[in-house]
Amino acid sequence: MTSESTLTVPPPRSLLLPKIPTHWANKHLLGLEHLSANEISLILDFAEALHAVTNHGRTKLDLLKGRTVANLFFENSTRTRNSFSLAAKRLGADTVEFSSSGSSVAKGETFIDTAKTIEAMLVDAMVVRHSSPGTPHMLAKHLQCSVINAGDGPHEHPTQGLLDILTIRQHRGSLAGLTVALVGDIAHSRTARSNIWGLLKLGAKVIVCGPATLVSKNWEKLGVEVAYDLDKILPRCDVLNLLRIQFERQAIRPFPSVHEYMLLYAMNKERIQRSKPDILIMAPGPINRGVELTPEVADGPHSVILEQVTNGIAIRMATLWLLLGSNTAHQAQQHSS
Amino acid sequence: MDSNWLIENARLIDPSSGMDRVGRLLIVGGRFAGVDSSDGDLPTQLSRIDARGLIAAPGLVDLGTEFGEPGREEDETIQTGTHAALAGGYTSVALSTNTLPPIDSAASVEFIHQKGARADNCRVYALGCVSKERKGESLAEIGSLVEAGAVALYDGPNPIENTGLLRRALEYCSMFDRVVFDHPEIASLSRGGVMHEGMEQLVLGMSPMPAEAEDLATSRDIRLVEATGGRLHLTSISTAGSAELCRRAKSRGIHFTVGCYTANFHMTDEMLRSFDCNCKVNPPLRSREHVEAIVEALSDGTIDIISSGHKPSSLEKKMVEIDTAPFGMIALETALSQVITYLIRPGVLNWHQAMAKMSLNPARLLGLPGGTLEIGKPADLVLIDPDRTWKVDADNLNSKSYNTPLDGVELYGVATHSFVQGRLRFEAAVR
Lengths: 337, 431
What we know:
- The structure holds two protein chains of two kinds.
- By secondary structure, chain A is α/β, with parallel strands linked by helices.
- Chain A has 14 helices and nine strands.
- Chain A has two domains: about 25-155 and about 310-325, Aspartate/ornithine carbamoyltransferase (Rossmann fold); about 160-310, 3-Layer(aba) Sandwich (Rossmann fold), CATH 3.40.50.1370.
- Chain B is an alpha/beta fold.
- Chain B has two domains: about 5-55 and about 375-390 and about 410-425, Urease, subunit C, domain 1 (Roll); about 60-365, TIM Barrel (Alpha-Beta Barrel), CATH 3.20.20.
- Helix content of chain B is about 30%, strand content about 20%.
- Chain B has helices at about 80-85, 105-120, 140-150, 165-175, 185-190, 200-205, 210-230, 240-250, 290-300, 315-320, 335-345, 350-365, and strands spanning about 5-15, 20-30, 30-35, 45-50, 55-60, 60-65, 90-95, 125, 155, 180, 195, 210, 230-235, 255-260, 305, 380-390, 410-420, 425.
- The radius of gyration of chain B is 21 Å and the shape is globular.
- The two termini of chain B are about 25 Å apart.
- The chains are: A alpha/beta, B alpha/beta.
- The interface of A and B includes residues 105, 153, 155, 222 and 251 of A.
């Protein structure tokens, strides 16, 4: 009996985690635009620490035991939703899943009411994905719990930006001075926007590259290089992040054909040969094999696409822990009131 | 209510005569009867108001106001809307056709008139649709609409997309000496858009409404006026390009009028950063350089008419994601204060110019009473305390809807009394 109960006590691995610094005061993670370089680095550091403490995800912690994380997905998603779900579970939290496609108007319930209903089940954090920009920001105003943006239309997808940056940092040690090109549909990409803010803040040079109908010249005003010719910038790039063509967000086809897009922007064997020998090939997924990149590249030695997925869980664990871990007293009080 | 009044010690501002002086204004039998009349000329039955520190100006006239009745009474009824109008200093509203069904028949014009009469607040005029069912395809029965009393033709808030239809409308309406209103926008460039295309939009990732969508429509509309000699009112310009096109066309002697909404002379697209659906308006809140161009066009007279742009949406319609939220904000009760705060106090417009754009010019355009303090004319009058400040509280406005992005904003200027035909129809609570 006694020996059994000792066995079930989890090892005090969480003691290995650094303390959440007092200057971290964020309740929500809505985007990277308004985070400082220090705050971004802090999330990356915690992601790595949690990665180590969980033995790369093989051990569960009880840091968030008794806490509930709700996944509120108004847009189809499998990878991000599962990633958040696993992250919450690996920290010991319970999860609630809600997914519905289509706008709230069509359903007859506003998304705010849906969120309030879920919140009334006493959740501590709500992970929100929606096709309309600003939806998590609106919820943050209407709800008491923490809100995490898991993608709001073409606006931001902060955990994706963070996991991309973490993957680069793991390979290169630092972002400073690296040249990172985001290739493809910049106009409709929340991943692009979150990457741009994070990369600029950490000192990387950012190039956005794609068809002129999807890459605004105005990005230059924010300190981003704008390019239309992938082959011209290729030799300078340390990292290529190949964004998915968001067919579903494009009301009007912004380029003549997929065939032409591939000719101009698909990353293939020939282009790899003209790249830096240590170039990193990333893609936020889901990837359209044969459109943004060919299978040889996706599965080739330069590809870190699957590392991104693994890092996604670490980033999401770090996010949940940083948002929920520092205010245990506050949350308890809120639920009892 | 008594319709003999003596307004004493007010600063009398009459854009129709250029009068601007302190005096006493006599109203007898619902009409302006004199300025500085001697005591012997006063009727025995008389109510007096000591208007020291207040401005007396012609009641405001709003064009293209949207209420939603019939069919969208949850947003605003003619009863609540006209009450809001009076509270904002408006004594006349010409209602948009954006109703269910749209105002495209003599019967529906008659409905508006009856509801307006029953509400018995301010004067209510009906605009009629340019096209059948406001679909933008074929001309509505404009002759019947005019016969029933439609004061102008408007497919608001939609632009007249079909260029051929606009041309026919301008020609056809000239038979009846009626003005065609157009909201200048080439919808194929802005369809699905949420906000002004620019740096803010780039960062926020919202669907764009580019400035050239408006510029091209303005240019097209002006060219058609020139070609047809028809009467056109551009309801709502918001871009530097539009302003410049209108300025040049007017200097070439082309006759048309230009309006703008109160939102577009002081609010910028940065407000969309709040993701507040009440900031989603059409024309969209533009970037600073466009707003400055609109202010300049107001100042140099390119813009003749300031309209409120009042477009109520019930709470639940705005409690949705910004992509699907309807456009529009309520403005009848803030318009005068917006003009005072952002145009008169900074010295962009003087009182005469401002009152001309809010009463005289719109009244003249449609041949309506109002816009003047001239003796013998119906006494549509507003008393304004120009220095009183107030904080907008959406919950305490008279409009049935709450959709104003100005909630919580401190503004200058309050309409203290609104008279329609000499009858005191609204009096603000004492501070």
